[in-house]
């Protein structure tokens, strides 16, 4: 029997599979090699939300898989809530390892699990939010399952580090579902207490160093500054952020004391954001001289009813887009642009925080 047709069929299937893997690889952005640290960690594990998500959200639901997201890098939507790279990519670059693959692609890109894994889902929080995606506790459960399945070993995790991103979704959810503003400080305490539990779980899994991001100045996000014509921040919101960050620092100190280690530290995103904002205000511009107004986003819905990536039933855009994303710190009403993240990453305050990684 002639085996040529079977051979050609197998070759064709292999060709299609190769194209599929190549397509997935485009979604897995390499971290930039920007700050060598010598012999460092071999794996990075990421937990949290859209500030760190590199493609876990479901395509049918997330704006991160729709235009104009991803137009700067990789040139099309790739699951990141930005026009390009996000915090995870820059952290991976600093550690001189490849950006870890999103958890949802772990089977298709099994060869990349050796660099770690990204469990972060955009829109999620420490507790459940209005987004139907895994909260942080569930994300840690995913890591535990991979340990149970022998994808990783506790011994292997001794040469790994973790990034835990907190961008405030718990607080947005609280305001959307709870009318008791007076209870906000107590809720902040409960969020930080749960963060402490989560950090200890990650440490118990075997991860050597764990960085948790301080909360960025929420009152300076465009969704808040729009009320002030994008000219100033909401001081009330930032006062609540200060409380969160104070409690977070205390929690990290407690964890290091309890474990008799220096395994936990805060990645000072809060002051890194302010460094960028204040440089513009002071006219120094050494980090990035191109941010004309750091509080005004590049992509925004044409009205309050629409957001970046919104289209009507005929596919007509319901958003406006700036001519040059590099000139803007914020991409949409919540997330920085790639250039914004690069500026944050490049600040001395964040570089000093990163030195604690290894």
Automatic annotation (TrEMBL):
SUPFAM superfamilies: SGNH hydrolase. GO terms for biological process: lipid catabolic process. It holds the Pfam family Lipase_GDSL. InterPro entries: GDSL, SGNH_hydro_sf, SGNH_plant_lipase-like. The keyword Transmembrane helix does not apply. Residues 1-31 form the signal peptide. One of its GO terms (molecular function) is hydrolase activity, acting on ester bonds. The keyword Hydrolase applies. Keywords: Hydrolase, Lipid degradation, Lipid metabolism, Signal. PANTHER family: GDSL ESTERASE_LIPASE, OSJNBB0059K02.9 PROTEIN. Belongs to the 'GDSL' lipolytic enzyme family. This is GDSL esterase/lipase. It comes from Hibiscus trionum (Flower of an hour).
């Amino acid at each position: 029997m002639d085996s040529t047709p079977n051979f050609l069929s197998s070759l064709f299937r292999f060709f299609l599979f190769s194209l599929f893997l190549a397509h997935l690889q485009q979604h897995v952005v390499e971290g930039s090699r920007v700050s060598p640290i010598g012999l460092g960690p071999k794996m990075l594990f990421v937990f949290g939300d859209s500030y760190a998500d590199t493609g876990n959200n479901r395509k049918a639901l997330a704006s991160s898989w729709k235009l104009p997201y991803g137009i700067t890098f990789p040139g099309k939507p790739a699951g990141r809530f930005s026009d390009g790279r996000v915090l995870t990519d820059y952290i991976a670059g600093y550690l001189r390892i490849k950006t870890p693959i999103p958890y949802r692609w772990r089977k298709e890109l099994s060869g990349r699990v050796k660099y770690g894994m990204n469990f972060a889902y955009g829109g999620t929080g420490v507790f459940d939010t209005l987004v139907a995606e895994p909260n942080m506790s569930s994300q840690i459960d995913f890591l535990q399952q991979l340990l149970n399945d022998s994808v990783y070993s506790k011994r292997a995790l001794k040469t790994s580090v973790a990034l835990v991103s907190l961008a405030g979704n718990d607080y947005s959810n609280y305001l959307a579902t709870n009318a008791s503003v007076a209870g906000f400080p107590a809720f902040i305490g409960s969020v930080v207490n749960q963060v402490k539990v989560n950090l200890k779980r990650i440490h118990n899994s075997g991860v050597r160093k764990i960085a948790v991001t301080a909360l960025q100045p929420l009152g300076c996000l465009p969704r808040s500054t729009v009320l002030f014509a994008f000219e100033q921040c909401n001081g009330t919101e930032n006062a609540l952020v200060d409380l969160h960050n104070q409690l977070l620092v205390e929690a990290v100190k407690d964890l290091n004391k309890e474990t008799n280690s220096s395994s936990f530290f805060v990645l000072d995103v809060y002051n890194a954001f302010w460094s960028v904002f204040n440089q513009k205000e002071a006219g120094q511009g050494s980090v990035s001289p191109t941010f004309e107004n750091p509080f005004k986003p590049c992509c925004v819905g044409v009205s309050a009813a629409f957001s970046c990536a919104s289209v009507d039933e005929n596919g007509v855009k319901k958003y406006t887009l700036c001519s040059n994303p590099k000139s803007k710190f914020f991409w949409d009403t919540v997330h920085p642009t790639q250039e914004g993240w690069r500026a944050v990453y490049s600040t001395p305050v964040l570089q000093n925080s990163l030195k604690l990684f290894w």
